[in-house]
Write a structure and sequence with these properties.
single chain; alpha/beta; 7-stranded mixed beta sheet; 12 helices; 7 strands; elongated
């Protein structure tokens, strides 16, 4: 469960209590509200986020107008947790990359799990350009490709900061996922061999294709022990609650234990490189 889901479920539970306190079952309430009963059910179970208008109607039907300000505040807090990619990238992807420079610069320990594409901190310029170009096409956001690439390259300067430490994990599948073309991939894999193993502040590991299934997850970053940032198709989610951070720590522990490091990781990269050349 994510912060968003928990907040949505908590809001739904509060609305359900108001309905019950008003002596209404789901269908009676829905009829009075003027919408289908399934909408009531989905809101109460946290499967749908109500609008502020919905909350106003709810309080009117349940004669609970005094509860409206707190409920609206809870809704706005929920919405603040869920930042749509289109809103983040409304002025282009460069802004998102520059924000990452600031966030990553404040962390002393950064742990990254990358199941599909290789970690941004180790990407070549050509690889990063291909990744960001596809993001722009897919999300249909403003085309600020070169500025976004420059900002992503700037993010890598943090690797030279003495007080920072990094543990970066990539699935073996990411070594084979074609980003750009064979030339881009070959350059990226050579870059990994040249840079991922000679920085004393950086540990790079490859989670083999044969590793045991841990849990369904997308890419995520854990910054120090205080926040996890998760990328989904439609949004970037920030997790700060202790119970949820514990789940990401649990996933990280399992993945890092499965990963290959040092010579074994080099071998897996070399095999992938040979297929490109």
């Amino acid at each position: 469960m994510t912060d968003v889901l928990r907040l949505r479920q908590a809001l739904g539970a509060r609305l359900r209590e108001l309905r019950r306190d008003a002596g209404l079952d789901g269908r009676q309430f829905s009829l009075a509200a003027g919408w289908h009963w399934s909408k009531t059910s989905r809101i109460e179970t946290g499967k749908r986020t109500p609008s502020e208008t919905d909350i106003g109607v709810w309080c009117e039907v349940c004669d609970a107008r005094l509860a409206k300000p707190d409920l609206v505040a809870a809704l706005r807090n929920l919405e603040a947790q869920w930042t749509e990619w289109k809103r983040v990238a409304a002025s282009g992807h460069a802004r998102r990359q520059k924000r990452a420079v600031e966030i990553e610069g404040q962390a002393r320990l950064q742990r990254v799990y990358a199941p599909v594409v290789l970690p941004g901190l180790l990407q070549t310029e050509d690889y990063a350009r291909a990744v960001l170009a596809q993001c722009i096409r897919f999300l249909d956001t403003p085309d600020d490709l070169e500025a976004a690439v420059a900002a992503r390259m700037q993010r890598q300067l943090v690797l030279d900061q003495i007080r920072h430490r990094f543990v970066l994990l990539a699935d073996e599948a990411a070594l084979y996922k074609t980003v750009g073309d064979d030339a881009v991939m070959a350059g990226q894999l050579r870059h990994l061999l040249d840079t991922a193993f000679d920085n004393p502040r950086l540990i790079f590991g490859v989670v083999p294709l044969t590793a045991e299934f841990t849990y369904i997850t997308t890419s995520f970053d854990i910054l120090d022990n205080r926040v996890a940032m998760i990328e989904t198709i439609s949004a970037e989610l920030t997790v700060v609650t202790a119970s949820e951070l514990a789940l990401y720590e649990k996933a990280w522990k399992a993945l890092s234990k499965q990963a290959a490091y040092g010579d074994r990781a080099r071998e897996l990269i070399t095999v992938a490189l040979e297929k490109r050349t």
